[in-house]
Amino acid sequence: MKQKLGLVMEGGAMRGLFTAGIIDVFLENDIQTDGVAGISAGATFGCNYLTRQLGRPLRYCTRFASDPRFCSYASLLLTGDMYGAEFCYHTIPEELDPIDNDTFVKNGIPFYIACTDVNTGKAIYHRCRDLISRDEMEWVRACASMPLASRIVRVGGYELLDGGIADSIPLKYMEYKGYARNIVILTQPLGYEKGPNSMMPLVRTVYRKYPALIRAMERRHIVYNRQTAYAAQAENEGRAFVIRPPQKLPVEHLTHDAGIMREVYATGRQTAQQLLPALKRFIETGASAINQST
């Protein structure tokens, strides 16, 4: 029996444009998987792999980079969300740069996202059935709602924030769902280690009613570093093909510079193109991805 192939995409806000470049190369070369999991920007940008819309994340990010409704401190002060909830998750995908929901639904490939339950500090996984209904887009918004920069999202009977708090790299989840081999796209270079959150004093004040969330955020760097180590182990064992940026990406979470956005996207494209022969071997034969540079 053929082993199911999964695609796992971590987040990282505007670092997600690295992922956007990679998935465009996948689309151009007919790289197909049996299931997809995305976290935060890995979901908001990665869903375009399933809608087959080449260049869409870069297009709307550069188009609206200077629009305060897209991402600004003014939006945070006025609405409680740095990334405007109505503008980013409804106005853009429904009107200004429509998402191809018909293609998403027709392809039938499972698309999983994760959010963090602020009452338990644990991940809540959700399969998106479409990308245009208000409830489903609220799940996507919750998945990418960074703490301190977003309101808590209430959907499906949960109170939710960014899935990266509880599960930044859902490789184990995809394996649990039956995807024996996975392509994993990370947005930090090899050797990166996350440190403790310097904003924890503010986090403890703002989320004092949510002690489980605070504990999850206190431990996030530990969990993240364990997950990158697990991805490396899976890579060494031939169960995963891990794609990472060659060096730290020159972008911040709230970058508004369209030139930098294009540079990050281009790095994703170049990285994917360089690894394409090795990736095809991994897909076709299950060969180990240890020697990706060959």
Give a concise summary:
By secondary structure, this protein is of the alpha/beta class. Helix content is 45%, strand content 13%. It has 13 helices and 8 strands.
Labels describing this entry:
alpha/beta; 13 helices; 45% helix; disordered C terminus
Secondary-structure blueprint:
Blueprint: E1 5-9, H1 16-28, E2 35-38, H2 41-44, H3 48-51, H4 56-63, H5 73-79, H6 85-96, H7 101-107, E3 111-117, E4 123-127, H8 134-143, E5 153-155, E6 158-162, H9 171-176, E7 181-185, H10 200-206, H11 211-218, H12 220-236, E8 240-243, H13 258-285
What report would you give on this structure?
Helix 1 (16-28) packs across helix 13 and helix 4 packs antiparallel against helix 13. This protein is globular. It has 294 residues and is an alpha/beta fold. Residues 287-294 have low confidence and may be disordered. Strands 1, 2, 3, 4, 5, 6, 7 and 8 form an eight-stranded mixed beta sheet that branches. Helices cover 45% and strands 13% of the residues.
The helix-strand sequence is EHEHHHHHHEEHEEHEHHHEH
Uncertain segments are: 287-294
> What is the overall shape?
globular
What is the alpha-carbon Rg in Å? 18 Å
Number of helices: 13
Largest sheet: 8 strands, mixed
Total DSSP E strands: 8
Proportion of residues in helical segments: 40-55%
Please report the distance between the alpha carbons of the first and last residues.
Answer: 29 Å
Mean model confidence by pLDDT: 95
- Judged by helices, strands and strand pairing, the structural class is alpha/beta
Beta-strand content estimate: 5-15%
